[in-house]
Amino acid sequence: MRILVLGGDGYLGWPTALHLSAKGHDVGIADNFVRRQYDHELGVQSLVPIEPLSVRVRTWREHSGNDLPVYVGDLTDAEFTYRMLREFRPDAVVHFAEQRAAPYSMIDRAHAVYTQTNNVVGTLNLLYAIADTNPDIHLVKLGTMGEYGTPNIDIEEGWLDVVHKGRSDRVLYPKRPGSFYHLSKVHDSHNIEFCCRAWGLRATDLNQGVVYGQQTDQTALDDRLATRFDYDAVFGTVLNRFVILAALGRPLTVYGDGGQTRGLIDIRDTVECIRIAAENPPTAGEFRVFNQMTESMSILEIAKVVADLHPDAVQVEHLANPRVELESHYYNVTHTGLVELGLQPHLLSETLLTSLYAIADRYKHRAEVEKLRPTVEWRRAR
């Protein structure tokens, strides 16, 4: 297949492009490099050094013999988006090209507006470009489990069968997102479902849990192929943040009581889920949803796993929660679709022992401790 990875310079986009290329697909990459600009804006850097995309692509060619053509541009530019699809002629488009951090979207009005404009308009341009150039292209869109929020009922895979006053229907699962970023993802999902229903497009929406880890089989081949490792309080996922705190001998900072439950997934499982979804497309007109996670734990349980498996003594520190969320809640998620298609999940304890601790210890000298403390508040001052 010909697969175009949008956001292919990012934390997940880059290893996904390599994984698909290693599996024999013709892969192209598109990016506007804005993720690297966020680092400059926030005064942070990836814990693991990352090379420019040109060096990464050349290194992959040296190791695999495979080219990764690169398109530099922005999905909010409709002309660029159309031209890219016409030139590359993909069978599938993997869409990572969005601002992905909830805290970043909550910094202030400008960041909220930027996040929603960038994410929603970019995806809408992409939908029109697919419809106008080749409606058979399969859109594989990275969503988030955060779209659902924490309802007091089981979370199904995207759809819900409802019986109301003696009548039944199948509807999109109700969403209650917890940030302007997560809201943008909900808008995306509704726009994509509408385009499948109205235009006959085919799409897979992957509602992904918290991703942890930094290495895949391909990125581990050469330091120049490394993907980024975010540890700061804005872009660093909770588990990666805990691991670097443990490596620095610092307490693991749990927001509130730590009873908030999250779905988790190893980065190696993420790239494999993308492959499985791309190689098994839905039918024309189908909006298919998979909940892309393999385990669920409360934040406090995650902290205890990190502390218990670390060779040194690790403490836990509770901070005032800067977010507006329930401290404890019901959380039961259906996530069978990808397993039924062949996913064989990795477990958190395995990843911690095989790679994450070693990576954190190797690069902990690059960490800035003050960047690990939360500074973005969800609540508006009254």
If you compute it from the alpha carbons, what radius of gyration comes out, rounded to the nearest whole angstrom?
20 Å
What name is given to the CATH topology of the domain at 2-213 and 265-293 and 327-345?
Rossmann fold
- Measured between the Cα atoms of the first and last residue, the distance is 54 Å
Total number of β-strand segments? 14
| Level-1 CATH class name of the domain at 2-213 and 265-293 and 327-345 | Alpha Beta
Order of helices and strands: EHEHHEHEHHEEEHEEHEEHEEHEHH
Helical run tally: 12
Report helical residue fraction: 25-40%
Provide the CATH superfamily of the domain at 2-213 and 265-293 and 327-345: NAD(P)-binding Rossmann-like Domain
User: How large a portion of the residues is in β-strands, by DSSP E?
Assistant: 15-25%
Rough outline: globular
